Amino acid sequence: MCSIRSGANLERRKWPRLPLAIPVFVKSRDDKGKEFLEFARALNISRGGTLVAVRRPLSPSSQLMLEIPSAPLAATAKLPKASRSLRAKCVRVTHAEGYYLTGLKFFRPLLPSDKLKQSGRQRKDGSVHVKRFSPVEVAAPA
């Protein structure tokens, strides 16, 4: 008899991941305590963490700083302040053809939950005035 464990296929992450390839700088310390800076690529990102492909292995539970480089225009333009440096902790490392896929958890989520609630309310309030059509109304002959 085969037993099926409940919850075996459930997603454990709190936030959905966005599959984006973003260049980042990883700053941390190696096994000997020497500081290093490496150019890497974030493969996906969520509010709470990211998956980064790096060339050197990081030990699980090591702390690091991610810096997202920005174009010169963003630095001079009067744009809203965005977080470009993110503190993170390594939670998982998997070796893959010349790279180490490193799962990182941010010390603080990218956007506080009160701002998420606020932005969600604004979108809902803004869309109240949109007239909605049912498929029956659109498909009915004139």
Describe what you observe in this structure:
The chain is an alpha+beta fold and 142 residues long. It is 17% helix and 35% strand. The protein has a six-stranded antiparallel beta barrel. The protein starts with 21 loop residues before the first strand and ends with a helix.
What fraction strand? Answer: 35-45%
Q: Can you name the CATH architecture of one domain?
A: Beta Barrel
Q: Are there runs of 5+ residues with pLDDT below 50, and where?
A: 1-6, 121-142
Task: Report the order of strands and helices.
Answer: EEEEHEEHH
Structural class based on helices, strands and sheet pairing: alpha+beta
Largest sheet: 6 strands, antiparallel, barrel
- Radius of gyration, rounded? 21 Å
Distance between the termini: 61 Å
**Helix segment tally:** 3
Q: Could you tell me the number of beta strands?
A: 6
Primary descriptors:
142 residues, alpha+beta, Thrombin, subunit H, six-stranded antiparallel β-barrel, 3 helices, 6 strands, 17% helix, disordered C terminus
